Amino acid sequence: MTVLEMKNIKKSFEKEEVLKDISISVKEGEVVVIIGSSGSGKSTLIRCAVDLEKINSGEIKYGELTLASTKNNEVLYAKGEEYKTINHKYGMVFQNFNLFPNLSVYENITLGPKMVLKKEEKDTEKIALNLIKKMNLEGKEKAYPYSLSGGQKQRVSIARALAMNPSILFFDEPTSALDPELTSEVLKVIKQLAEENITMVVVTHEMDFAKEIADRVIFMDNGYIAEEGTPEEVLVNPKNIRTKEFLNLM
Ligand SMILES: Nc1ncnc2c1ncn2[C@@H]1O[C@H](COP(=O)(O)OP(=O)(O)OP(=O)(O)O)[C@@H](O)[C@H]1O
Ligand SMILES: [Mg+2]
Question: Pocket of ligand 1, candidates 11, 43, 201, 202: which has the most ligand atoms within 8 Å of its Cβ, to mutate?
Fold first, then answer.
């Protein structure tokens, strides 16, 4: 089953076209890793997928539900209840955590299920305690974000995203703000999610990690998908000259 389908996406900021006719589709259980040099449009692509940026043309579908479509050069976005349903299908983990600074770890995780999904206390507690255990955050329930290490913050942020039970989870360079030893603890939990067949799209500069977790790798270059395939095809035996150059620089 296809979880996400993006077709012929174009996105410009003022005069600069940042996404130039990009199409990707992600199947249930698939882990897609996006690589590419700085400015190639990786963040913009996933920001468009989760509706933090509006596209200029193309189509975005989550399962059977259409988030955005284009007719007669006009982009139409889902509204109202339909929008809410689509909005609950995806979660996002940012480079800089984006936790609520005035809420504890426990509250950061339960806020969405409580306020957005309108779940009862006993259910949100169960969800939170489960995720706290899974993300190795036991003992930190009452801690506030300022008192956590970067790795712990990022694991809270992953728990918060998972608490909404999304069909697909997006990560934008989840470890690039972290020291190497904190990086490995975050990569470990993401790998664990991959093993549980959670559908994910991950932008990363960690090539060894990409090789380990990806079912498919997409190499973006200058707003295009320059190459796409298995980790073996793209990372070990790339065909495209730009992919080769990029990997040599890493
Ligand atoms: N909000 C914005 N307004 C104007 N230009 C933007 C905006 N966001 C991104 N851009 C431009 O779009 C291009 C692609 O940026 P994007 O952040 O998607 O690249 P990236 O591949 O994620 O790079 P990096 O690896 O550095 O994170 C860049 O030239 C950037 O300056
Ligand atoms: Mg980026």
Answer: 43
